[in-house]
Amino acid sequence: MINNYRKLVNRLSPWQIALLAALVYGAWAAFVNSEHGNQVALKAGLVQGSYAFVSTWLISFIAKSMLTYWGYSQGVRWSAMSVSWLVMLAIPVLLHTWQQTPDLLEAILPGLAIGSLYLWSYCQQLQEPA
Fold it and tell me: How far apart are CA 111 and CA 24, in angstroms?
């Protein structure tokens, strides 16, 4: 199973993964904010979906660039993950604060948790191009 995941990580482009993230996380943010009305839910969904797309693409790009430039050692993998994680955290906090999303923490926690797992696995499974 790990080998299949490794192949998938190395085959998919960051924008393909980012598109899936936008759909899933945008729908989640809209759902958790739906009690505040359709307009608030739509704004939260669009903000989270936009963030998820940009963030997933950006963190994948940062991680892959760092690994490509500095090598695929375990130290570089952890550094790439740390830098990318800080970017992944900063973007939704800033966007949701700007949009005054009422349930900011609820809106970003699933994406942050799953994004952290994705980022860790991406950094660990990405292999040097043959």
Answer: 9
